[in-house]
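User: I'll paste a sequence; please echo it back and then give the predicted structure.

Assistant: Echoing your sequence first, then the prediction.
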Amino acid sequence: MEKGIDISVHNGIVNIAKVKNEGYGRIFVRAGYGKDNDDQRYAANAEACLRHAVPTGIYWFSYGYTEAMAAAEGRYAVAAAKRYWNRCPIAF
């Protein structure tokens, strides 16, 4: 089983090279939350994962309490992922 972590603005500045060297095989980056709110560290974290060739997924923290809200947030998550990857796992 692959060892992985998730990171967001709440972790501060994460040393992605160090995380990779410690044996983490995948990093899930919080892309955002709620109604089109990007995580403040999403761009920096995504770019660092790309630079260090770390397999990456994203997650979107949903606040959708109706089907329409959840669908909109799902679209935000997919759009956020497409800024950096053609394909990646998305946790919602």
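The chain is about 35% helix and 25% strand. The chain has a mean pLDDT of 95.
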